[in-house]
Amino acid sequence: MPNHLLLRESGSQPINGNFCFHLYERQLSLEGIELNVNISDVVLKTFTNSSKNITIGGASKPVDCFSKYRVNIVVPYRRRPEQLRVFLHYLHRYLQLQEIDYRIIVVEQSPEMHFNRGKLFNVGFVESQKRFPSDCYIFHDVDLIPLSLNNIYACTKMPRHLSSAVDTFDYELPYCGIFGGAVAITSQHFQSINGFSNLFYGWGGEDDDLYFRVSQAELGVVRFEKNVAKYKMLRHEKEVPNPNRFVTMKKNKIIHAVEGLNNLNYTMLSYELKSLYTLMRVHL
Ligand code: BGN
């Protein structure tokens, strides 16, 4: 495998026992975790009660081997309970099959302002690093469902665009610099590019801005092949694009170094360990 596609393994070693044989060494299939796009509260509750291996706060790791990959998965969120249920019901089973050591962190924005996806990711990163630090992050939309088990939820040496073959785009990249949906990046790289911009309120642009930051830092971006990077997008109404995004984009090309993680401010409204995820509610 080319060097830049190599997965970055977690630094620690097992004291007792062995590393897991991860799926690419085992040829697992997705059998047994079919995607159900209609998950009621009752079904999710039953799922929660029957999942022995998920600890409060939505964390899990393999029980009989030591995972090579530890990752925090951050999901920005507001008013999409149906999608969140589908996401949690599917993703926990998917990540457990991959034998990842993970935690799902949902960052929910209060109602006052337009949705700010990038800033929510920044908050999720900063707060998670204080409470349960990880050297690998996946920034993930709630409406995206990975369809191949080979799309391993870990960091590569270079930042990785995970969702490069989405059904709604006919499994093609709509443009070469697209960097939205789901991305995996090491904490060190994320810090070095000063995170996402905090300035994109409303739909669009913050992901292109992240791509710009990654390019400026010459980190490069990798994507796995199409049949691996396949996603289903859950149905929802189209968001209203932010009319100012072009202007913000242009301005940010000059100020990105001084705007991002280093000037992030927000109010934490609550912090809660739910059974299937860690919930941070914030006012931006
Ligand atoms: C692009 C959006 C992205 C979005 C993709 C895919 C903009 C920025 C214009 C300066 N970019 O057009 O944010 O992820 O579409 O939907 O609107």
UniProtKB/TrEMBL annotation:
One of its GO terms (biological process) is carbohydrate metabolic process. Residues 160-237 form the Galactosyltransferase C-terminal domain. It is found in: Membrane. Keywords: Glycoprotein, Glycosyltransferase, Membrane, Signal-anchor, Transferase, Transmembrane, Transmembrane helix. The keyword Cell membrane does not apply. It holds the Pfam family Glyco_transf_7C. Transmembrane segments: none annotated. Pathway: Protein modification; protein glycosylation. One of its GO terms (cellular component) is membrane. GO terms for molecular function: N-acetyl-beta-glucosaminyl-derivative 4-beta-N-acetylgalactosaminyltransferase activity. Residues 35-156 form the Galactosyltransferase N-terminal domain. The keyword Protein biosynthesis does not apply. It is a single-pass type II membrane protein. Belongs to the glycosyltransferase 7 family. This is Beta-1,4-N-acetylgalactosaminyltransferase bre-4.
